[in-house]
Amino acid sequence: MKLEGKSVLVVEDEPEMRRFLRAALGSHGLEIVEAATLGEATRRVTSRRFDLVLLDLGLPDGDGLALAAELRGFTGVPIIVLSARRREDDKVQALDAGADDYLTKPFGMNELLARMRVALRHAERAAREPEPAVEHFGPLSLDRARRRVEVSGREIRLTPTEYRMLNLLADHAGRVLTHRQIAQGVWGDSRTVEAHHVRVHMALLRKKLEASPARPRLLLTEPGVGYRLCEPDLET
Ligand code: CA
After folding, report:
1. Does 146 fall in a domain?
2. Domain shared by 228 and 144, yes or no
3. pLDDT tens digits, one per residue of 113-125
4. What is the C-alpha to C-alpha distance for residues 216 and 212, in angstroms, rounded to an integer?
5. d(CA 94, CA 214)
6. Same domain, 231 and 176
7. Where do runs of H (alpha helix) occur along 195-235?
8. Which of 33, 44, 97, 148 measures 20 to 30 Å from 160, CA to CA?
């Protein structure tokens, strides 16, 4: 996934941070547009389209999450939250509001670039029809047309619940899904299904797919937040 030429809206009130992002992202050929307040960001996103939004949460005139929720009303543009808030609840809230990913400040530029590539690729994949016949995630291959799952060439039999869970994670490969999003996607209900159910079925799925379930390489845990299916870009 090439970053060159992509347009990015940077919503950030701290001049230092904006300067850092402008220099670092600009050197990768990205087009940067800046907004220092929630109001300015709202004006920007309604006047043109962007390929990606980097979103700070603590803004002088409100919470960045309001913008995430508003954006989700009319566009699938990838949103990566960059925040100093480190509580798991904050991450869960941001992801549930529709953010694609969440990085805690301070973060490394390589990590941000990797997350941006994943988010952009995901958006491109969602816009493209049809899906590739067989998808590969490291040793795992998923053939949805034939409903066939293999690890290192060996066929793996999954229960319908496990299969739905894997499909959901593959739809959002490289992104964290919260317990609530997984419950909603797999069981169609996020209120009565408890995080405990998600954990149990994830453990079963890991047992079948991971070479060493206690040290997962494919189905990664984001502590207190949820799970992500590993995407090669994130392994660097
Ligand atoms: Ca801020």
Report:
1. yes
2. yes
3. 999 999 998 888 7
4. 6
5. 28
6. yes
7. 195-209
8. 97
Neighbours of ion ligand 1 (CB under 5 A): 13, 56, 58
**Residue 138 is assigned to a structural domain of this protein:** yes
Distance (Å, whole) CA 38 – CA 61: 6
Amino acid type, 125: R
Q: Please state whether beta strands 52-55 and 79-83 pair in parallel, antiparallel, or not at all (unpaired).
A: parallel
**Under 8 Å between Cβ of 197 and 162:** no
Note whether residue 1 is domain-resident. Answer: no
Q: Could you give the C-alpha distances from 147 to 120, 162, 163, in angstroms and in order?
A: 27, 12, 9
108 shares its domain with 149? no
Same domain, 98 and 58: yes
Structural domain total, the chain: 2
Domain harbouring 75, CATH code: 3.40.50.2300
pLDDT surpasses 60 at 32: yes
Rounded distance between C-alpha atoms, residue 185 and residue 177, angstroms: 10
Cα separation, 55 vs 68, in Å, equals 8
Tokens coding 78:
């990838």
Residues 139 and 111 in one domain: no
Strands (E), 19-176: 31-35, 52-55, 58-59, 62-63, 79-83, 101-104, 134-137, 140-143, 148-151, 154-156
d(CA 167, CA 10): 32
Query: What tokens were used for 179?
Result: 């317990």
Distance in Å, CA 220 to ligand 1 centroid:
29
C-alpha of residue 128 to centroid of ligand 1, in Å: 35
170 part of a folded domain: yes
pLDDT tens digit sequence for 123-148: 887 777 665 678 999 999 999 888 99
Domain that holds residue 204: 134-235
Q: Do 15 and 86 have their domain in common?
A: yes
Cβ atoms within 10 Å of 132's Cβ, excluding its own: 11
